[in-house]
Here is the input.
Amino acid sequence: MWEMPYKISSNGTLTMKRKDMKRMTDAWLLDLYSKTVMSSFIGGSGQLSKSTEKSLILELRSRNLL
Here is the structure.
């Protein structure tokens, strides 16, 4: 069975390791970014842990997507 590459805490914060992000597609990562980081600027409810947010941004930059 396929294991989810992220964990969601009891308060709803998503946590994911950078090594797992490297296996994900560009579209999946951009979708995660738009539903969490970008939506927080316009009042969205998506939450990432600070370390996951930094890792996501670094991964997107390394792929020249940001």
Notes: The mean pLDDT is 85.
